[in-house]
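Schema walkthrough. Field components (list of strings):
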Amino acid sequence: MAIFQKGDFSGLLVIQIPYIKSKFRTMSRRKFIKNSVLGAAGIMALQTNARCESGEVKSKELKGKGDGTREVIKPIVISTWRHGMEANHGAWKVLKEGGNALDAVEKGVMVTESDADNRSVGLGGLPDRDGIVTLDACIMNHEQDCGAVGCITDIEHPISVARKVMEDTPHVMLVGKGAYDFAREKGFPHKNLLTPEAEADWKKWKESESQKKPEINHENHDTIGMLAMDANGNLSGSCTTSGWAFKLHGRLGDSPLIGAGLFVDNEVGAACATGLGEAVIRIAGSSTVVELMRNGKSPQEACEEAVRRIIAKHKNLEGLQVGFLAMNKKGEVGAYSVYEGFDYAKTTKDNHELIKAGFDRKW
Ligand code: ASP
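Field assembly_structure (string):
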């Protein structure tokens, strides 16, 4: 327990830095996402925002203040990282037919959960220290109903189990064996999620010196957090991950925690987080971003302020990456991270884009 306290992650440094740093070195290995996913009208553009120093906003689309001067952009879906491009496609199929945001954010991240090439979400996710793939997920709708599962094993779609927890039980969160048993009762099939590739990575990690010193070449692509607003202007969000690679068995990060990895308030906006969950939890990250928007900040300003709080609360920022993504009721979007490298996918009727987030510092 003590090793998780007071922001001192030194006890876990042996696995922290490999996990966090490796996220940004994998982009070149990702298959390029086809730009045809939205049909003939779809456009894929890779925005190359200039580096955003703290407090500075460089991307024109991030300037909205939610002051009523702009038209509401809806439906819209945004999600973390490059894998969000494919996930947004899944969500857009729902939104473009007039479907609701909750269905969209569930269907969207299910795409990533089933992608065996992705080493940080669902099937194919890297296991914990004991070689067990444990998954965390949560979901929240426009009525502030929410559901979550933590440390669930052998179930391909933890996001759908989280939704069942929300809809079919009086609880918000189930964990471990209880979550697995509940999923099985609800008809979710048992599935081994440890792919040969992920197992090989784990064995390599176990056998190598990388348990004792930073390693930079794991193929991680990080949590997927997704936020959507449907044609009715209702917001929902989802978040799903296999978490910190080679973590201690039983560890939960921010991703299944409502208020940390995800928060939705349909009167204000929604936010999600990615990166070092322990740091996100310490500032109640996503809830903080939404509260900042409630108090008048734009999504971009709110994400920047939350990142600044994380920076202020941690003496040692080495390898400590966190990124926030947010949307307000106008369909304005913001994103910001501690370190360079965070990006997100944004899909509207006009565009399907991968956008580089602003950041406070370079690696
Ligand atoms: N936030 C996730 C966790 O701490 C991991 C990530 O987003 O990279 O489990």
